Amino acid sequence: MNLNLAPYYNTKLGAEIRVTGHSHQGQTKRQEDAIDVAFQTQSDNPGDSLFAFFGVFDGHGGPEAALYVKKQLMSHITAQSNFWSGNDSRILKAIRDGFLSVQEAMWLERRKQALSSPSSSHRLRKHPSYPGTTATIAILKEAKLYIGHVGNSGIVFGYQEPGSHFWRAKQVTEEHIPDKVSERERMHRSGLAVRSMLGLPRVVSLEDVRGASSRRKANEDDFFTSSGPFLPLARSLGDLWSYSREKEDFLVSPVPDTFVVEVDSTFRCMILATDGLWDVVSDQDAVDTVFHAERSNKIHKNERWANPSRKLVKQALREWESRRLRADNTSVVTVVFDKVRTDGGHQDDKKLHRVSSKEEIMEQYWKALGTLFVIMAPILIAFKMFEA
Hints:
The chain is α+β, with helices and mostly antiparallel strands and 388 residues long. It has helices at 64-78, 88-116, 118-126, 181-190, 206-210, 275-278, 283-300, 308-322, 358-387, and strands at residues 2-4, 15-24, 33-41, 49-60, 132-133, 135-141, 144-150, 154-159, 168-171, 192-197, 200-205, 237-238, 243-244, 249-250, 257-262, 267-273, 330-340. Helix 1 packs across helix 2 (88-116).
């Protein structure tokens, strides 16, 4: 996937951007990742976009949850009146409420299935819904990035400091994993335990801990035991099995981290990716890959274009292979910032026109020369009259 908005500069987005995405199944049994890129427009012109939406979703227990959230999350967020308020706190509340609304919709859908027939109701009570997904999104609006995040996918920014020729990486999301003290304490209070599998901390219901003797031996692809999930996440969307009637809440929390970041002239790129990338590629190495891809694209222009997202996925697959591990699903969305509005207001599109061809350069040269002649002509005439 490659989407190029470089010819357009939209004051609602506050930035001139180019977007790419790429996904690979790796060496797993199935593809459970999903990515999403969407632009809310008032017309067919991408330059009229009101906002841009970017998301990565890493499913487990099947692809159903990731695909459902990909399809529904943006509309659930934009359905909140707070999203259109223009107030940062209220927009972040809309994102939080959108996450929880999607979780509720998944729960209601599951109940609807259970009530459809007595046999399915018995089956769903005996085997609760296991699919779940991470959800990491960024919404670009008025030169600000509004972030919502649950799970262990992540976002990294690439900056270029004044005077520097290279880009610096900065991780902006935190993993919601069981070995974080704050998450572990919350889960234990809720009725979940953290146990180790293959050397990694996993979330398991306390009821399943008591029935551990019936648990079959797990392999690297297993998120579940014979009696219930064995999850490497503390927060997600889906995982409806974790609903507690006693607490009237989901023990694997669907509540996202939310925050806003102002985009400034130092921004160069934003990378959203599932853990298939971040488990084997460092933040700085990922930003360096985008930097070199962009530098190559500027040199070769349309002759040999490089998709930075595809390069990142291939880099991750090489790392998995070099470590003699089975490659995980790996999905990446990369946003490159070409220009950013810095005055906080509307700018004339002409000031931001990108000169990319020889013909355009020569056209602007002759226009500038003509303007210079108009300015200088009266001065030269007056000088000649003075000499006479």
